[in-house]
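Usage

Read records sequentially. Each one opens with the input sequence:
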Amino acid sequence: MQVIQRFTVVPSVPDPLQPLLEIGRNLWWTWNPAATELFRSIDPALWEQSHHNAVSFLGAIGQDRLRELTADEVFLAQMERVRADLDRYVHFVTWYERVHAAELGMRVAYFSAEFGIHECLPFYSGGLGILAGDHMKSASDLGLPLVGVGLGYRVGYFRQILNRDGWQQETQQENDFYNLPMSLERRPDGSLLLIPVELPGRVIHVRIWRVQLGRVPLFLLDTHVAENTPADREITNQVYGGDGEMRLKQEIVLGIGGVRALKAMGIEPTVYHINEGHSAFLALERIADLHARHGLTWEEAREAVHASTIFTTHTPVPAGNDVFTPELIRSYFSGYAARTGMGMNELLALGRQDSNDSNEGFSMTVLAFRTAGRANGVSELHGRVSRRLWQRLWPGVPEHEVPITSITNGIHTASWFSTEIADLYDRYLGSRWDEEPTDHRIWERVDHIPESELWRSRERLRERLVTFCRQRLHQQLERRGASRAEIKLAGQVLDPDVLTIGFARRVATYKRATLLFRDPERLARIVNRKDQPIQFVFAGKAHPRDNLAKELIREIIRVMSREELRQRFVFIEDYDIEMAKILIKGVDVWLNTPRRPLEACGTSGMKVPVNGGINVSVLDGWWCEGYRGDNGWAIGRGEEYEDTDYQDEVESLALYDLLEADIASLFYRRGADGLPHDWISMMKASMRTVIPVFNTNRMIEDYCEKFYLPASLQWTLLTANSMSGVRKLAGWKQRMAGHWHEIQVVQAQAEVSREFKVGEQMPIAARVRLGVVEPGDVTVEAVVGLLNAKGEMIGGVPHRLERSEGAEEPGVHLYRGLVPCTESGRHGFSVRVLPCARGLSANPFEMRLIRWWGDPATAPLAPAPVST
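and closes with the structure output:
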């Protein structure tokens, strides 16, 4: 039947219960236990059936039950308490208002291709989305003036089903946006707000959905509107769906459509944060908008964009970054280049490591690095890996000075704790542990929690996990058509009294989900020890096009099915946020086995200590910073191998040894009172050291103070007085680039023939030819560092040299300085010249201009030579 007219039906809730709609449409309730319990108390079975979706749940409640609630004084009082808590949350004075009241003009737009907020909003595929969701929640908690921008996917990520052979199959489940906690953005006259986005030969239209998370909104863009062709409606169909061209269209909608959506809603950010490279096209749209609105050249507009853009990279391998062919970019962006005055070659160069290589593909990560003034990795190790991986973008800059810093990820603590553990925190840590998770003094109080109470809570959580696994396994086997005997055995799998280890994450080859299974015979002996048994819960999805990852899942299922392992292992299908919460609360130990250094951060293990769990992991990602020796276990000592098969063999043996000799023995070593005192001591050490550091409140504070506020200030300075600062900076950079070839370090002198004692200072003098460049426009530095066996400088430290009198040639200037000798050994030094933008520029390397001693005045950039 043809649809003649569409209309929307919303929940019919009696007036006395209207606060339920207010609470349900603000996802603050998802990290508020009292609010969650309020909904559950109405109809526990229906609450589970609704997938914890407050909006569809309220629409499905029978009118008789609603009438009962209007007369239930206890329920109404509970509802009013929750509504008052929400009102108090939204209006109390926040950290940002208290600490940064002078910078209240800042506004941040946070762009991400996926957001993992809650199980009822399946707009995510893995850890990147979960991090983005936790980022938004902590921004709300801290009162940060931030908005999120993402895509609203019609079917989201896939649902996972495993066949009898263990091969992953995918099914899709369409999201009913009108029954989700979302609302459409409209114009003042009530008409739908649609954003135009140009694609080759046509214009598509994008609508905007608002999701409210406490104080901050998340805007999700959706192309599934009648004005678009059926093919264009599919652009926002699935997370990372389709081929390369579909990915390009998704990223155009996200980056270009996202900037236009904010503008159409009257939101004018002072800072844009690109969370992974998928949204990097926002920089091109901002350049085009500044060109059109203010008459800036594309070089001038780029300076304003560069100053106010943050880029966080999450991928430590080149293959994990989106790269498009030059032909595809030309077909989609030729009009863009023409509108901004930017040539197509200049636009393509923004996405190439070698801007002169016309055959190189267009990388979204490179585009983000070239258009963002500040960039970071997501752990200290990942920052180092990223500097090495992308050093080529800053020719002549030593690896350790490549301007990619690090801000380690965290978790939104309030979203991941169990009610059992929260009750203990309330009693023994005080009332503010969930509001101030970064306060180390609060977490020192975990020692006040009686061991018996903490252990009983852990046992209840483990028992709940075992019950969940048995139920899910029963459902999985029934669906696969398993025999009655197999289904009956599902009720006996796992043991609530046995040490339980969890491994759940996106399945990718570098995460090595099969490392545990390299020696099934030894593994069987370990898990079946009569006095110290161990059991494992596995979960995770492989990308639909990643057949190697699917093979890993099939191999896991095959090994788990062995008779001697069957009762100690279970693989739970369709891993999502809801399941993650159950797993991280119930396991005693969280296992992580990435191939170092390919895990950028990995936040799943951060969620376990919140509930008293302990980590055992390769020293990769965040665990390099989190491991203290007494708060968990490390697999290896951070070694890196060229032979990956040998690495797998060594680290699998190390894992077996840990399980056998350390982990199991500690867990089962009980005192006369039946408590594992040493294990509980490690649990408390894990809580004390991990929770106050690896949380998104600390992460957001880092972003705010290190990136957001400086970028917002720089944007304000550059765009004041009709963009005069931008024009000045762009003109200065153009002049510097035009005369940089004239600069030369003519001579550098030091008393290298004599020996210096630690604590002395070595005088260095340098003669620098600047030509027509003003001395105030450059910084001259002596770079000093230890030498390795090859005579190469290791991690040189720059020391500024000051201009002094004494140069005898026109255009040549004398610079002098004293370099402290801080450690013994063989050292070297060199001298370099960098542009200095007199406070207008945050990064001395952003112009990619550097002149080292030994570079001829007309030579291309080269690495630093070393004097001995």
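Summary fields computed downstream for this record:
- Residues 859-868 have pLDDT under 50 and may be disordered.
- The radius of gyration is 29 Å.
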